Amino acid sequence: MLDKADGQIFTGSVRLVHAVGMHARPAVKLTKLAKKFQAQISVRVAGAPEWINAKSVAKIMAMRAAHGSTIEIKASGSDAEAAVAALVDLVASDFPDGAG
Amino acid sequence: MTETVGIVIVSHSSDIAKGTADMVRQMVGTEVKVAFCGGNPDGGLGTSVPLIIDAINAAWSPKGVAVLVDLGGAETNSEMAVEMLEPARRDLVVVCNAPIVEGAVMAATEAAGGSTLAQVKAVAEELSAD
User: Fold this and answer.
1) A67 tagged catalytic
2) Which residues of B make CB contacts under 8 Å with A?
3) Hey, is B69 helix, strand or coil?
């Protein structure tokens, strides 16, 4: 589910299948994975007014995305496409242990 | 794996210190060194400067060590422990102004990405900023 937008911005969206939504442990995994990329990465619950820095664990925990919500991801920078793909995969696969 | 900032957890209670360290290891992983101490040498509630120094040594990293504390004496004893380190290491240890559990998890998450000590401290303290 990757759309190449204009220029260097890559976006993706993925449904949060985790039973209790974006609680602490998934938030840590998402942040750790995001930090492995150089790209600037932002996420939001679909339709939310503000994008959140995917590398800020405090902000990701505070976003309180609920089970079944859709997470939108956008990234820009040299490895942005890989970053979006990796984060979509992490959420879609329900934050497996060892990921991130 | 490159060096990461180490994390030290100092609580008045050894159970809280150990439990917080368990949460960090389970949630963040084992790539960040985590050491903890809690209770006084007699097994009661309290904190002890020598035990804090031991924990700092156990979590030592050339990138530095971030210390997370709970109430009053944990902070003052941690500062005293830092003062007692040799001068070259003193500047590489910071006591964070952050809630102990949340601060430890967030500091370790930041440290796992290879961040500097200043970045780790800033992330831990993000929770107290508002």
Assistant:
1) no
2) 26-29, 105-106, 109-110, 112-114, 123, 126-127
3) strand
Mean pLDDT, chain A, integer: 89
**Could you tell me the two tokens for B30?**
């084992």
Partner-chain contact A25 B110, CB within 8 Å: no
**Host domain of residue A79:** 2-92
- Which CATH number do you get for residue A54? 3.30.1340.10
CATH 3.40.50.510 fits domain B6-123: yes
- The whole-number pLDDT of residue A92 equals 94
Tokens of B52: 């804090």
Query: Model-level pTM?
Result: 0.87
Alpha-carbon distances, residue B121 vs A9, B20, B38, B54, B84 (angstroms): 31, 17, 21, 21, 21
Mean of the pLDDT values across residues A5-23?
Answer: 83
3-state secondary structure chain A: CEEECCCCEEEEEEECCCCCCCCHHHHHHHHHHHHCCCCEEEEEECCCCCCEECCCHHHHHHCCCCCCCEEEEEEECCCHHHHHHHHHHHHHCCCCCCCC
> Tokens 């401290």 correspond to what residue?
B121
Q: How far is A28 from chain B (nearest CA, A)?
A: 6
User: How far does CA A28 lie from the centroid of its chain?
Assistant: 11
Give domain status of residue A11, yes or no. yes
Tokens of B89: 């290491």
